[in-house]
Amino acid sequence: MADKGCFFYLVKEVWESENRGRSPMERWQNKIRRLRRSFRGWARNLVSQNKKYKLDLLAKIDVFDRKAETSLLSPQEVELRHHLKRQLTKLMREEIFWLQRSKATKLLQGDDKTKYFHLVANGRHRKTKII
Predict the structure, then answer these.
(1) What is the torsion angle, in degrees rounded to the nearest 10, for the CA atoms of residue 31, residue 36, residue 38 and residue 39?
(2) pLDDT tens across 28-38, in order?
(3) Which end of the chain has less neighbouring CB within 10 Å, N or C?
């Protein structure tokens, strides 16, 4: 149902693991601590897994493309190639989504230099303003 790289699987696994603590509050705090520890490297590992998966898909598609240059592919090979292409497209869409979202966030927040120069300009304006 859920693969082991899935966020929800990770939360469920950590939450249902050991249950130490005398009071319900201590048990809850211990679970939150374990979740925090397990989240630290999760995103980084997920990115590297996706990168490896993408390279694997590209290599498999390349094998079929090379074979198609010299001979006809069987119907099963054609279907498998299409399936691999769909998986690659799905992965690329997710990558593009997160890339665009990160750029939008950066544009909305601005960078530190812009913020710094706005503060300097506003400070200069306040300083030279005649009341």
Answers:
(1) 140
(2) 888 888 888 88
(3) C
